[in-house]
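Page 37, continued from 36.
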């Protein structure tokens, strides 16, 4: 090799090594900046896009920031994550404030796990039930006493025998007449021999407790409805709701951070709720007393934990007719039924799993379509789905982590309205 060629190769090698050091330095600085500012360095599992590419306005969506920060400054909640998806593309995905302020202060991050509370009902339970419906294992018109033989319908003093039976559709639309809730101590008072936690004891109580109205005559939101539905899933499949939902919904959808009963590693990234009676924060432990103390953490009314990205995958599946990444979780007609008011149940403004916003704005805001549905969780979580505009809004907060609380209804409504205002076409 001549001298000129040797010098040329040496210069080339030097330039290559220098370039590698430069890239490494830039990457390291960007990592430090991301950690220092709390900016996420990982991207959503779903494809991201500019709002304009799917017919939304970036400047109008940016108003979400000021709405969230105003409520954080007012002490309504310490932190939040918000996501907006349209046409299968994530167009807004941000974390705000703090995941924890009691004890150590921990910044909110996009991968924070949340106690979903009542979002468990549509995401885990209603989806599972409708899978069984489309497979022909059950029907929405089935009587509950087909699965729980001693389950009471409606009986009066004049007619001591059941005359109006409760059906699966009644449970799903909260028109069964069951009481809204029961505290674990009430179950023990009704049966001093009961040993909790035990799902069998809870189901036995629900099967026999007083009904507050005749089925299909009024809407009365009840956690007991979805505890019974989860039990029916177990009766039909032989699998508890956590196992069935994991195998049939979460794993097929690659919702890898959605589960019941978090382990210690998962719990470390959970937004804590409040202190228990022993003074410890509930972190990775379901907040709802009935689900925690009576059902042992796995229940149809609460108990599910998840992340913003996982829920974005779930709602995108619904907006895409039951399919995501080539995996079909629900049939298109099943999704239509899930997001629509059932025939004969229209006046109750409930779909099988969701609340319909056709007659009032509430969490759906003022500018989304009449086909909009949604659900909330008492811990500060919510999902809004507008099938007509093919978009969904997910808001997850640690609302009950602090003591200064007020209704989140206006907050959720404002977020949905901002998103509605951003629609250009």
């Amino acid at each position: 090799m001549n001298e000129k060629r040797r010098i040329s190769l040496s210069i080339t090698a030097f330039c290559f090594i220098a370039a590698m050091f430069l890239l490494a330095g830039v990457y390291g600085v960007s990592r430090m900046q991301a950690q220092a500012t709390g900016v996420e360095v990982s991207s959503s599992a779903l494809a991201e896009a500019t709002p304009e590419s799917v017919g939304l306005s970036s400047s109008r969506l940016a108003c979400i920031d000021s709405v969230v920060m105003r409520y954080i400054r007012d002490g309504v909640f310490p932190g939040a994550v918000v996501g907006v998806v349209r046409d299968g593309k994530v167009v807004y995905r941000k974390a705000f404030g703090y995941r924890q302020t009691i004890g150590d202060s921990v910044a909110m991050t996009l991968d924070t796990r949340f106690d979903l509370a009542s979002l468990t009902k549509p995401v885990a339970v209603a989806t599972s039930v409708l899978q069984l419906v489309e497979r022909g294992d059950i029907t929405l018109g089935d009587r509950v006493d087909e699965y729980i033989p001693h389950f009471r319908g409606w009986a009066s003093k004049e007619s001591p025998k059941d005359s109006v039976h409760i059906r699966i559709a009644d449970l799903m639309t909260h028109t069964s007449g069951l009481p809204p809730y029961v505290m674990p101590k009430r179950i023990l008072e009704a049966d001093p021999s009961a040993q909790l936690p035990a799902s069998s004891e809870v189901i036995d109580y629900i099967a026999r407790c007083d009904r507050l109205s005749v089925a299909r005559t009024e809407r009365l939101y009840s956690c007991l409805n979805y505890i019974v539905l989860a039990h029916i899933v177990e009766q039909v499949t032989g699998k508890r709701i956590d196992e069935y939902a994991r195998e049939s919904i979460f794993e097929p959808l690659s919702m890898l951070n959605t589960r019941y009963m978090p382990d210690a590693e998962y719990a470390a990234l959970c937004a804590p709720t409040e202190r228990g009676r022993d003074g410890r924060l509930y972190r990775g432990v379901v907040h709802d007393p009935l689900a925690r103390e009576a059902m042992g953490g796995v229940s149809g009314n609460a108990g599910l934990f998840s992340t913003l990205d996982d829920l974005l995958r779930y709602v995108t599946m619904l907006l895409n007719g039951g399919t995501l990444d080539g995996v079909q979780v629900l049939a298109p007609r099943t999704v239509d039924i899930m997001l629509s008011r059932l025939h004969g149940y229209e006046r109750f403004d409930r779909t099988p799993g969701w609340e319909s916003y056709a007659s009032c704005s509430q969490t759906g805001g003022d500018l989304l379509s009449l086909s909009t549905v949604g659900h909330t969780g008492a811990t500060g979580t919510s999902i809004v789905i507008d099938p007509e505009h093919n978009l969904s809004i997910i808001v997850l907060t640690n609302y009950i982590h602090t003591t200064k609380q007020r209704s989140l209804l206006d907050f959720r409504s404002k977020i949905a309205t901002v998103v509605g205002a951003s629609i250009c076409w």
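The radius of gyration is 25 Å. Flag for discussion at group meeting. Confidence is low (pLDDT under 50) at residues 1-44.
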